[in-house]
Amino acid sequence: MEKELFVLSLAAISGIVLYFGFKHLPNERWQFIASFPISKSENDLWKGINLTYYGLIIACAQAFAIAIFITLTGSIGVSLAMIALVGFVLVCSCVLAAKMFARIVEKKKHTFTVGGASFLGILIAPAAIFAVYKISGVHDAFNFILPVLAAASISYTLGEGIGRLACISFGCCYGKPLKCSETVMNRLFSRYAFIFSGKTKKISYEAKLDGHKVIPVQAMTSIVFIVSGIVATYFFLVSRYGLAFGLTMLITQLWRIVSETMRADYRGQGNFSFYQIMALLNCSYSLLLSALLPEHTLEAVNLLKGFQYLWNPAVILSVQVLWFVMVVYFGKSTVTGSKIKFHINRELI
To answer: Are residues 155 and 186 in the same domain?
Structure first.
């Protein structure tokens, strides 16, 4: 019964978060958390650095994904040391890839791409898991790959489902505009279209589409990822690791291919973008892994054991430190600036 309650709790919490995000984040109010003065200029104005909700949401999504990964892997008896090593390798690789691939494909220095991060993460994950276990002297390290891969793919899927709210906040990864003509696409999305406001959102300064109805592709991605992640979580809890891994990877990567056709932001040259090619390769690679890797049951799933791992003081502090670093790394805006002026509320003196 605890497995069903866990899955239902995930669904309820995710639904509440997504509902709030879809309703409020397209508004101008939800782009910046704060501005910090760094140097004084003319007319008593200070030049400021902006901290965005984009960074806060990405950091929260990553912390959520790590918590899911620790809980799931801990529940099947994977040691905390192994979880930490595998998680460290994958997180560091994906964070670096998020900027590297955006620079290569989109020719932009000040942006990130989840597509590039997921491509590298999926590519190196089996080797990283095997290497960590082999170096640590664990017997039958090969049998650990698929269960840990399944936990990692579920964590990635749920994390990106929440993380796509960051794109709504910053106005990036935006959909194509809906025209006035009565087409099937317009009738399908008109009621649920996003209308972004704010001249500093990416959809505004890059495409001049603020105030226009656009396809809510970020919301659609969040829903597809969260639903597939929750279903895969249940399969994981009943020890169907191959099914859990194959389901998350197949749905998320196929959706990435389809959703690219509904996006209006620059995705590189060609009708079939480099990100779509990477997603197609990930699909094939994931299906091959699901077919070849042994579905070895490490031990019966025990969620309580996973929660005990999560409640470890060292784990809590590590996740908090990582959360703070990610808020700063992803949240410090280099494409926007601010001018700050301070004054005295004399009526209160």
So the answer is: no
